[in-house]
């Protein structure tokens, strides 16, 4: 039950985008009996466990897949103004809206602002890139930073700012997910269902905490920080929705 495991990880100090220490432990705990019973040699089992132990990020792609499956189920609902995808390719940022299937609304990819690893400087970084913002689309990651105050050591800022991000994201979402909660905010459900009209009227943009990738392919992650989608994506989406539904 990945949703239950996700909820547990949030209660153990992860936000399940850039901090996955607890989630990786829970996932390998669940997988271990099957790995042992699968009939592989001790050496093969050792390689599996060493691979998992080599990175706390192991559970991250699992959460991404879970979030993608959930948001795909919400896509294609008539009249819906809910964002179902956010993705970036280092050149453009794109989003999809439930009530506008088959369309992407794009704007320029932004610079991720945050601490750099030793030996790197901001001019070494490329623009925002990757598919991991599906976690924020679902309501975790930057939306759940109040569950993971230690994340500020990686992405920058203060604990107070991390908590405020979770509160602020509630202003641009249609509701809360009662199955995935934030203990520090009185077990409030994570802010869920980004509404393009609420973003447009408030001017508040979704917050994404993410890796900073080097501008040269192959170098990899050189830091982490905070980034927002360009407002143009939401302007285009609102206009597209109005045109589609004759508003």
TrEMBL record:
InterPro entries: AllG-like (IPR009499). It holds the Pfam family AllG. This is DUF1116 domain-containing protein.
């Amino acid at each position: 039950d990945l949703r239950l495991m996700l909820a547990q990880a949030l209660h153990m100090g992860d936000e399940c985008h850039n901090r996955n220490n607890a989630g990786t432990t829970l996932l390998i705990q669940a997988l271990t009996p099957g790995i042992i019973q699968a009939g592989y040699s001790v050496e093969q089992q050792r390689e599996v466990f060493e691979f998992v132990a080599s990175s706390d990020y192991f559970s991250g792609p699992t959460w991404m897949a879970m979030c993608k499956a959930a948001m795909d189920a919400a896509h294609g609902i008539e009249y819906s103004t809910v964002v179902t995808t956010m993705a970036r390719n280092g050149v453009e940022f794109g989003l999809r809206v439930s009530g506008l299937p088959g369309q992407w609304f794009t704007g320029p990819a932004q610079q991720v602002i945050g601490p750099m690893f030793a030996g790197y400087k901001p001019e070494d970084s490329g623009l925002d890139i990757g598919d991991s913002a599906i976690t924020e689309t679902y309501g975790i990651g930057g939306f759940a930073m109040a569950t993971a105050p230690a994340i500020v050591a990686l992405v920058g800022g203060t604990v107070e700012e991390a908590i405020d991000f979770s509160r602020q994201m509630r202003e641009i979402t249609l509701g809360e997910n009662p199955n995935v909660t934030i203990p520090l905010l009185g077990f409030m459900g994570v802010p869920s269902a980004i509404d393009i009209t609420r973003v447009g009227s408030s001017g508040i943009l979704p917050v994404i905490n993410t890796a900073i990738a080097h501008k040269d392919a192959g170098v990899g992650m050189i830091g982490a920080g905070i980034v927002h989608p360009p407002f143009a994506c939401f302007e285009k989406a609102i206009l597209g929705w109005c045109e589609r539904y004759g508003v």
